[in-house]
Structures are given as structure tokens and as C-alpha cells.
Amino acid sequence: xxxxxxxxxxxxxxxxxxxxxxxxxxxxxxxxxxxxxxxxxxxxxxxxxxxxxxxxxxxxxxxxxxxxxxxxxxxxxxxxxxxxxxxxxxxxxxxxxxxxxxxxxxxxxxxxxxxxxxxxxxxxxxxxxxxxxxxxxxxxxxxxxxxxxxxxxxxxxxxxxxxxxxxxxxxxxxxxxxxxxxxxxxxxxxxxxxxxxxxxxxxxxxxxxxxxxxxxxxxxxxxxxxxxxxxxxxxxxxxxxxxxxxxxxxxxxxxxxxxxxxxxxxxxxxxxxxxxxxxxxxxxxxxxxxxxxxxxxxxxxxxxxxxxxxxxxxxxxxxxxxxxxxxxxxxxxxxxxxxxxxxxxxxxxxxxxxxxxx
Length: 358
Description:
The protein is of the alpha/beta class. 39% of the residues lie in helices and 16% in strands. It has 13 helices and twelve strands.
């Protein structure tokens, strides 16, 4: 009997890997897509973790470690293995990274199953002018600090959280090159960049033939508001350049989850209203569109969030949709959206609602 057959008959813990196909297309039945022109594949649905931290410590988070661990467990079970965080989440506490790091430490066999993304650039881990921006020193120090909080040896995808007009971009990109060579960072992306700023980086990438080219851009986008000034045109640009566009706040801070179906639900005291997402004069048009989209989703047997996410996934240039989840139920619902394929008629009906004027 061969050694492999002996292991298979003995109940070896690696038994489950025998007979795997040469090529794996899905994880937990979740469809995957390439991130930009890279070889990295990510699920249609990712998990945003900006709500996760230690609420009891007053960091401004909403989901504590116990609940977060339950969400992470379900994320793996649902194939949502692309997790998005940032060092500054929750009042620059680093706690979103810490919670993720604690989960990874308690599940060491899951590290390679998770595609882990974090961001740097804003003031963090210090109080001097050298503790912010995209200088070589701050990039390296920020990565070292994130690795410690995340309790891992490498970051799958590192974002610059914002453009730094005061540091030569050649210096910033050279630091990324060094991190990639050391295998501390594997892929590079940017967030909150305009088309003009992207072009600056792209020109340097081509002139210097850098290996760590931008594979994704994460900017604010939702189907009601589109892109926000001055970031208009980035989705179209990234589509032409082969860069994945990843939307932050794709469900408009909860507006597109189905919680708001009437104008009486929107007013002073509501988070969306108070943060300026909705003004008194703009609430009614949004609500009318929401009511129509909600009616469509009900007729098609899906939640409003699922209609929105599945529609976004079909937009040219769109990468994975990263939605935050404050409960296991939300995670499951968002994950199911990644498996929905809208037909052309459904897309046209949604598009007609989105483009109508009131």
C-alpha cells in the first residue's frame, strides 16, 4: 500500500485535501473575480470592518470582539474571505485591526484563507508630523504597527488611505516596492484618489516599471449618489485601465439596506441626516427611488440590499462589493447577494429608476 493510501485509510487530518481538482473556482460556493490585472482572486462580496472594535472602551465602534468573532466565523462559512480594515478605524484606535488579529491568532489555520486588506496614511501611532502622510518612514512604521496589531506576517492588500500632495510620489511607491520585496505586503491599492492623482501614480509605475502596481481603488460610491466630487470619473477611468473599483459605503450608510422606506423615517437625529448624507430638500427624491427599488426587490424575492449589491457587481469596472455587517444575519444576506445574477431586463428596470428625475 502506498504512503498516500495509508494516510487516507488512517484518518489523517489532511485526508480532505486528497482528490482536490487541479483548479478551484469558488470557495464555499461564492463566485470570485480577479482584483485588477493581478492574479489575486477575491470573492464578489467582502467584509468591511469599520464598525468593529471595543465599544466598551469608547472607541466609537458598534460591534465588540465576541460579536465580531461570530461574524468572522460566518464570513468564512459563507465564502466572504476578503476582509477590509484600516489602522485609523474607530477614532484612530487600531482596534478594528486588533480584533481581526485576535481572531487570526485563535484560528491560525485560517490565515491563508483570508485575503486581508488594511490602509495607512492618516495620523496614527504617534503625535509628531512624521506620524502621518506617505513618507517612507511613516509607510514602513505604519505597516510594522499594523502587522503587530493584526498578528500576522504579511498584508495581502495595502492601501494608501488618501493622496499625499506633500511627499514625492516616487518616495511613497519606492517604499511599497521594498515592502513587496520583503513579502510584508503582497498587493498595492489606493483609496480616495481622483483621476488626476491616479494618473500621477500610473505614470511613475510605467516609467519605473514597478512590480507593485495599483490593482484597486477604493472610493465612495452608491447607486443613488454615484461618485462624489472631486472623485467623479474614477470608476470609468479604472474600468479602462484594468483596475478594480471598490466602493466604500456601497449601501449608503444603511440607506440602501431597506431600513428607510418612507420620508417619516428620515430626519434630525438620524445618523444619515446628521452626517449630511441626506439634506431636508433631498430626502424625498431619495425615498421615492427607495420605494420603487424596494418594490422591485420584493417582487423578485430578494432584499433591497441584495438588489443593490447584485446590480453594482454588474457595473463595468466594479470589483468586489465590500459591505460592513453588524450581525451574522446581515453577513449572510450580503453574502447571498454575491451569488445573484440579474438579467438584462432587471438591470434596465433598476437603471430606469436610478436615472429618473423627480
